[in-house]
Amino acid sequence: MAEAAQPSGYSSDSRPQDVSPNFDFVVPKNEINSVPDMGKWKRSQAYADYMGFVLTLNEGVKGKKLTCDYKISPTVEKLLELLDTLDRWIDETPPVDQPSRFGNQAFRIWYTKLDKNAEALVASVLSADKQAAAPEVAVYLKESVGNQTRIDYGTGHEAAFAEFLCCLCKVGALQVEDRLAMVFKVFDRYLQVMRKLQKTYRMEPAGSQGVWGLDDFQFLPFIWGSSQFIDHPTLEPRHFIEKKVVNEYHQDYMFLECIKFINEMKTGPFAEHSNQLWNISAVPSWSKVNQGLIKMYKAECLEKFPVIQHFKFGSLLSIQPVKP
Fold first, then answer.
1. Are 215 and 170 in contact (CB under 8 A)?
2. Which of 141, 260, 249, 248 is nearest to 192 (CA)?
3. Exposed site from 40, 94, 145, 312, fewest CB < 10 Å?
């Protein structure tokens, strides 16, 4: 599959560099307010940069295990510390007693702590010459953990975390050589924290299609996880529904980590509670699974107004149309 963008800055004309001359930072805001606005989104630099980023990482992890060797940069280490902080705050904010089983209100207390500290957390990841980017980038971090009012989480929030990483690439805090660490360390740790949030506060799936959706909460790890399996000598798509395979290989493959979590959270036949994934297990090759999931992601997430109305646009992910 051809990469959609240059890997370093994830757009055709950007390279990691000192950001001060290139961006006039702003607090990102909503720009897609009605269905007709979706055309603006599809033509935007933000859409091109975001898809370029997703596809570049997809290419980077192809055929590689989570446990393979790769570089861990100081920025990656700082991002892992940031996620450890979010994890620790969950331990410090236990669920409250309430009549409703789902949507524990303690999540709002946890979220308020993030809201107050997000800018400082992002600043701790950035070098001195990039501090001006912190207020803009922090918005994507806050958007990535779920909705404070509804106490829900879905693929739009997941996309915000990918946008957060994309912005760190655009300001040069993350580089092309961080590709594997971004997925295998940072995004994987993010998934662990989100699963803990979902379980601790019984978060509702945001905009879930129920049995007809791929998964209640995530999408990107299925894309990147299927790329990890491309050209695997023994494991085929039909194997991922076998619990023995999941238990044996989940530490090496993001896709199987997701299946393991589904198996822990849901009861009953897999074909009933996760019908779309069950259907995917019949696809003959992982490369076809990967291509199909990318198409499905565009159609089910990036082209759906209920998801994109929450997307925030600033100087780094711009609503301006792609230059011809």
1. no
2. 260
3. 94
Which residues of the chain have a pLDDT value below 50?
A: 1-21
CB 130 within 8 A of CB 16: no
Q: Is 195 left (phi over 0), alpha (psi -120 to 50) or beta?
A: alpha
pTM for this one?
0.92
Q: 21 exposed, middle or buried (CB, 10 Å; 0-12, 13-18, 19+)?
A: exposed
H or E, element range at 153: strand 152-153
Q: Which residues pair with 84 in a beta bridge?
A: none
Strand duo 29-30 + 312-313: pairing: antiparallel
Structural contact between residues 155 and 307, judged by C-beta atoms closer than 8 angstroms: yes
Give the tokens for residue 249: 């290989």
Can you give the pLDDT at residue 11?
A: 42
Record the tokens describing residue 318, joined without a space.
């711009």
User: Within 13 Å of residue 56, how many CA atoms lie on the same side as its CB?
Assistant: 25
State pLDDT tens for residues 41-56.
999 999 999 999 999 9
Q: Find residue 152's DSSP bridge partners.
A: 147, 204
